[in-house]
Amino acid sequence: MQIKVILSFPFQMASSDSVTTCLSPAVHYVICKLGFEKKAIYDINNIVSENGEVCWQAITEHVCYLESDRSVDYIESIRSLGPVCESVNLHFKSLTKDKFVVQYALWFQWTNYTELFLEVFDVLQYAQSTEVALGLMKLTSCLERALGDVYLLIGKDCPFLLRDLLASEQLAVVFGEVVMDVLRIFIGSPYGLNLRNVLWHGFASPEEIPAKYCAMLLFLTAGLGQLLQIYLLKTKHVLVHRPYVTFIRLEDLDAFPDLNHETLSVVEELLQESNFVLRTMLPFWMAALTAFKQSRYADCVILLLPQLEAGLRLLFTTTNKCPNRLLTAEVNFYLKSVNGTLYAYLYWCVSPQEFLWDYLNHQEGPRIRDHLSHGEINLKAFPREIANQLLAFAITLLCRFSHEDMVVFKEHLIIKPLMNCASCYHSRFHPISRLKKQVSPCKLCDRHICTLYSPRPVLEVLVVLRKICTQCHQVSAQVIASIKSRYQQWTEKTLRSRQRHNYLRMLNSIKFLSPVLRLILVLITLELVNVHLVCKKNPSDYHQYLKFLKSVLQYTENLVTYTSPEKNKWDETMQLTNKALLKIRKFSDGKLTLIQSAT
C-alpha cells in the first residue's frame, strides 16, 4: 500500500464521532464478553482465606491447555476465570479500607509501591471507568518493574519486554510455571486479554475495560507477594529494588511556555471540536487535564500518551484510507512497540515528529513512554516540566486538526504561541543535534541538518564523529589542567629538573597540538553538515571512509592517554600527531571526505 503524505493545510479528517471502538471484533469479544459467558458463582472463601492468603489452586485449576501442544488455551481459560474475577471484585467491594489494609497491604511491599495498590483498591470501590483504566495502567507498569526485580534474584539481564519477562525460566522458578500462565492470560500475551498493551497503546476506551480484571490483577499481585516470601525464606535471598530513573537537565526539554488555568480552560472547549480526539476516548483527555490541574503529573502523562497514539493512528488511517488499521485486528500489529508505529503516523510535518522522537525514542532523551510503561519512574516525583511539555504539544495537535471553521482557536492569543513553538521545534536529542552541541562554537552548526529518517550508515558515522569530538574535549581539558598546575609550580620554583624539561616540552607540543585539534573539529563539523551524503557511497568507499574515521578516533584516544597527568608523553604526542596529519592529508587527497563529495 502506498503511504500518502500530507503536505498542505487545513487537513480534513474523517469525523472521529463515527469511530465507536478501536478494538477489533475478536479482541472486543475477548475483553468485553468472553469472561462474562460463564455464569457460575464461586465461594470467595475457597479462593482466599480470612487473613488474606490466596489459594492459588482455586485459580490455577481454571487454566486450560490445548491438547495438541499443551500450550495455554487462552479462550477457554478466560471464559473459565471470568466468574473467579467477579468473585474477587465483589470480595474487594465488601471490604472496608482498614480491613483490606490488614489483610493485603503486607503482600504488596515486594512491589516497592504499596500505596499504589491501596489507591487501586479505592478506585475499585467506585468503579469509575476512566480511573479504573488509569489504575490498571499504573498497576501493570509497577508489577512489571517488581517482577523484573524478582528476575534479577536469579538472572542477570532483565528482559525489556513484558511478554519475555513473563515467559522467563527465572520467574517460573520463583512462582511456578502455572502461576506465570495465569499472569499471561491477563497481561503479556496478545492471545489473552493483553490488558496492558490495549490500554498503553490507546486501543481500549474506558468503558471497554471490565473493573473485575483490575480487581483480579490486584489480587494476583498480593498472591505473588505471598509466593515470593516463601521462596525468599527458603533460599535466604534478599530482594533488591533497582533505583528509579531520574530526569536530569530538565531545561533541555523546555520547548513550550508554561500552561496556566486560562489555557486549560480553552483546551476543554477545543477537545469538543478537534477531529484528533476519538469521541470514545474523550474521558481520557478530560481526565488528563484534570490530573494536570491537580498536580498529578504522572497521571496526566500516563493518560495522555496512549491518546496521542490513538489520535495519530486515526490520522494515519484516515489519510491512507485503511480504517481497519485503526483496530487491534492483527497480533503482529499491536505487538509492535510505539517506536515502530507511533512515529509512522506523524508524517505531515517535520517539527512534531522531531518532538516525539526527542521525548519518546532517542536514547539520550527522556524516553518518557518506555520509562513510564515499564515502571521505571517514581510516579510520586514526576516532574511538572515534562507533563507541561507533552500536554502543550498535545494541544497543538488538537488545534491543528480541529474543524476548518475553528480558526478562532488557532489564532487565539493563548494558543498561538504554542503553535509557533511547535512549528519551529528542532530535535535536541538526535545524535546529529548532540554532535552539533559538541562543536557549537562553529558557525556552520547553525545550518539545519535533517534528523528524520537517518539510515544506518549515517548513524554509524555519527557515533564515530561524536567519540572523536569527546576525545578532543578530553585532551583539551587535560592539557589545560596540566598547564595550570605546571605553570603555578614553575612560578613557585617547585619543579624538579626533569619536570622543568617536561614542562618545556609540553609548551612546545601545545603550539602544534592546538591547531591540529581545531583542524579535527573543523573536519568533524564539515562532515556533520554533509553526513547524509554518506548514503551515496558504494559499500567499498563507505567501508574505507569509516575505517578512516576510526583511525582518527584511535589517534584521539591515544592522545588522551599520552596527555594525561600520569603519562605526560609529549614527544610521543608530537610523533603521533605527525602520523595522524599525514593520514588525514592522504585521505583528503583522495577526495573521499563528505565535504569533498558535496563540491
Automatic annotation (TrEMBL):
An example Pfam family from this entry, by short name, is DUF4209
Q: Which InterPro entries does the UniProt entry name for this protein?
A: DUF4209, ERMARD
- Describe the location of the DUF4209 domain by residue ranges: 143-223
Q: Which PANTHER family match?
A: ENDOPLASMIC RETICULUM MEMBRANE-ASSOCIATED RNA DEGRADATION PROTEIN
The name under which this protein is listed is ER membrane associated RNA degradation
What species is given as this protein's source?
A: Phasianus colchicus (Common pheasant)
